Amino acid sequence: MVHVAIFHVAVSLAYIVAYSAIEERSPSMTMLVLVADAGDAGVDPAELREATKGAVTVEGRLLNMERDRMVERLAGDQYVLLPKGRAWAGVCSGWRKFIRLERGG
User: Fold this and answer.
1) pTM of structure
2) Taking the CA atoms of the chain, what radius of gyration do you get in angstroms?
């Protein structure tokens, strides 16, 4: 039962993380898909730059987090976690510690 529970939590958290890439494509995801679709022919750097012009940036994600009341923007362009953001950060941080994953991107 413990293995099933750990697997369920892992898959649930993976879905949460992947959902942001599905909801709004990041520049990295846009480039990866473009290069993968090009296959052996490859992609010209100018084509990569053109493709990522419309990609969602960090600013868009911060606006979504503000809208969802996960963070609040303070004077001086500082952001602080609100209770909902603190809860999600705690879940992700706790899971990372539980599986002994190092910090990083």
Assistant:
1) 0.51
2) 18
